[in-house]
Amino acid sequence: MPARRLVVAAWVVASLLLLPSGAAAQKSAFIDAFIDFHSALPGNYGDEGPRILAALDRMTSSLDTWERSTRAAEQVLRARAGTTPADFALLHIDAQQLDAAADEIQRAIAVDPQRQSYYILQGLLQRATVHPQGASAAFDAAHRLDPNDPVATYLLAAQMADEGRSDAVAPLAALLMTASERGGALPPSPFPRFTLIDDLSAKWPIFSPPGYADGFTSMAAGRFREALERFRAAAAQDPLVVDEAVRAPRVQAGIAALRQRRGPEAISQLEAAAAGLANSSEAHRVLGIAYRATGRLPESIAQFEAAGRLAPRVQRARLALGTTLMEAGRLDEAERVLRDTVDALPESGDARWALAELYERLDRGADAIATLETALPLTVMAGRSHLYWRIAQLAHAYRRDSPRVISMVSSRTWLLLNEAHAHKDLGMADYRAGRMDEALTELVMAALLGLEDAEMLGAVGHIHLAAGRLDAAETATRRAVALDATLPQARYVLGTALRRLGRLEESTEQLTVFQQLQKAAFDDQVRTFEIDKTVQDARRLARAGRLAEAAAAYEKAGALGARPEIFRELAAVYAKLGRSDAQARALARAEAQ
Which residues pair with 360 in a beta bridge? Predict the structure, then answer.
């Protein structure tokens, strides 16, 4: 492996080596405490207040040590002979001071303008600090210093693709392909990551609750002291922390019973508590949680409504009310509640996420897309890639809007540069849109990061075939067929390439298999169409209030193999019909698949 390919990956290692012993552990402790703090904020049971305060204390303590270690490292650097601005840039990156790091790397370039890795880091910092326009010049400089470096070549090609410079992408894609053939795979994680938390550590976007939004904005900007002050100020007004119900013995006993799944006992305790604390939003909200957990949705809705009236500036009861109404199949009411929540609490990403889910159930894809796009400016500490991906999926499914799909998947890829599957997804989106050079760039990078996938190789083969590179087309599609012999496209491209190469007998063999696979795929599409039509019929019947017919249609869709999510919709229909046993079975089927 050529040494030059290890330079960028070494930035992260170097930054850790700068720190005194134990500093990295304190940074990890700070991150762990922050994750615990955020995990407690939804208040899923109602007893998370002490956990919020304890997590803030741990964040403060670990930040103290982390900052002391950073100051000590800075003093060591200033006293050490041969220290460069790049060393300080690494220190700032570790401390999440990205603007300061960008300034230092600019100074490093002025001192040593021939160091290619400086320009790569500069370009990535510019993108990370919302100055993507300046990244072009930095990536171009890195590429000019070493045209054979696949990392620099890829970054420039990806930047040009984002800017709509297809003319500039084509030669870079060719260079990247040559580098791939010559050098093999890249080392693990060749691109530095600047986010405090790994984006893929979350399974969905981790939005900040509206009351804590200012603190999360400070966190995302690396102003951790300021964030802690704002978090504590928010906690001092948060009913989950300060409401009198938090310390009420009956509420505590009810929550303990609920955690142990002793529903009747939990409800008995919480009903008594709510009766004695009529003006406590948390007493009503926690009782609503217990009712919902035991399937008593009408009572749950009533309690969430009461909690929302008592604490209208707090998201939890509003969000719980909207999602419980969805669960009960009262979709029009759920839409009103969630829309009102977004209007009243513009910082609420969770309300937008739930509202988009509702619009999907109503087959209002355009509204779902528009709702999620309004969440893009919000602070998301982890899971932002899932937000981009969901918008892209909706744009593809409902509008076949290739530009929007590519824009969202590209943003996701810049966030996940070390993830081969992210590059594949963008490459396939480009490929389906006919952007062949852009597609080849991403698919080759996926391969350089170690991914070998039949669908991807079939697309690469097709790109080569369209460009007249017949030998390359044969090589790619033979590998695709070896990985997945049932892939029709790879068989077709391979057969066509062989025919153009004059190997007619082999071509006929591949094209015959293609025709057989194509028929099987068509039959599968017919089945999928029948499932989709049945689900749409079920939803139409449910909206019209013809619940028994809707339930039958949902059951038919499930028997045909519809996705598990439809069983939640079926459960909502059974809930409205008052068939609790059937509702429970539908929910169990949703969880089991």
Answer: none
Rg (CA), the chain: 28
Helices 420-432, 384-394: inter-axial angle, 10-degree rounding:
20
Range with lowest mean pLDDT among 51-60, 90-99, 174-183, 217-226: 174-183
Angle, CA of 532, 538 and 539, to the nearest 5°: 90
Phi, psi dihedral angles at 582 (to 5 degrees): -65, -35
CA distances from 29 to 52, 57, 344, 560, 568 (A): 15, 12, 35, 49, 39
Q: C-alpha angle with apex 403: 399 to 405, nearest 5 degrees?
A: 65
- Which two three-digit tokens encode residue 71? 């100051």
Secondary structure string (H, E, C) spanning 535-577: HHHHHHHHHCCCHHHHHHHHHHHHHHCCCCCHHHHHHHHHHHH
d(CA 520, CA 432): 22
Q: Which amino acid is at 130?
A: V
With CA atoms as reference, report the closest residue to 444 among 204, 113, 245, 178. Answer: 178
Residue pair 269/275 in contact by the 8 Å Cβ criterion: no
Angle at Cα 430 formed by Cα 425 and Cα 434, nearest 5°?
145
- Cβ-contact 69, 22 below 8 angstroms: yes
The candidate with the shortest Cα–Cα distance to 267, out of 289, 246, 298, is 289
Q: Can you give 273-328 as a three-state secondary structure string?
A: HHHHCCCCHHHHHHHHHHHHHCCCHHHHHHHHHHHHHHCCCCHHHHHHHHHHHHHC
Tokens of 218: 């400070």
In the DSSP assignment, the letter for residue 398 is: I
Q: Please say whether the beta carbons of 405 and 429 come within 8 A.
A: yes
Looking at the DSSP bridge assignments, the partners of residue 207 are 380
294, 587 in Cβ contact below 8 A?
no
User: Tell me, what's the pLDDT at 359?
Assistant: 96
Percentage of residues in the chain with pLDDT exceeding 90? 75
Q: Looking at residues 510-532, what average pLDDT do you find?
A: 85
